[in-house]
Amino acid sequence: MPIYSYRCSNGHLTEDFVPVMEPRATVPCETCGQPSHRSYSDEAKNTDLVHNERWSDAMGVVPNQIPEAMKTFPGSEYNSEGQLLIKNRKHKLFEAKRRGYTELD
Predict the structure, then answer these.
(1) Which long-range contacts (CB under 8 A, 24 or more apart) does 57-64 make?
(2) Domain count for the chain
(3) pTM for the full predicted model
(4) Is the dihedral of CA 57, 63, 69, 73 positive or negative?
(5) Collapsing DSSP states into helix, strand and coil, what is residue 39?
(6) CA distances from 47 to 56, 79, 80 (A)
(7) Which end of the chain has fewer surrounding CB within 10 Å, N or C?
(8) Alpha-carbon span 88 to 53, nearest angstrom
(9) What is the pLDDT of residues 4-36, one digit of tens each?
(10) Is 41 found in the same domain as 24?
């Protein structure tokens, strides 16, 4: 699911994590409650900085392989199901690169 960025008239940024087929034109601002409209420029500028933690199955491991994966990729965080914690886009690219993965256009 993608993260959509919205900005209110007071300049506050709000993010909405919803399925691709369900983007909203406006959402209430998390700071002041004013209507926030989708901000395509914020989405383009902030993809490396947006805080959108999620668990990755694609870069995860089988649960019994977690100890070995943590030795191989120090600093990686896995849940009990073996999913890898991805903190934001920049972190995703870092984890993918050190695993030898490439992102397709």
Answers:
(1) 57/83, 59/84, 59/86, 59/95, 59/96, 59/99, 59/101, 60/84
(2) 2
(3) 0.53
(4) positive
(5) coil
(6) 17, 24, 28
(7) C
(8) 6
(9) 888 899 988 888 877 778 878 889 998 999 999
(10) yes
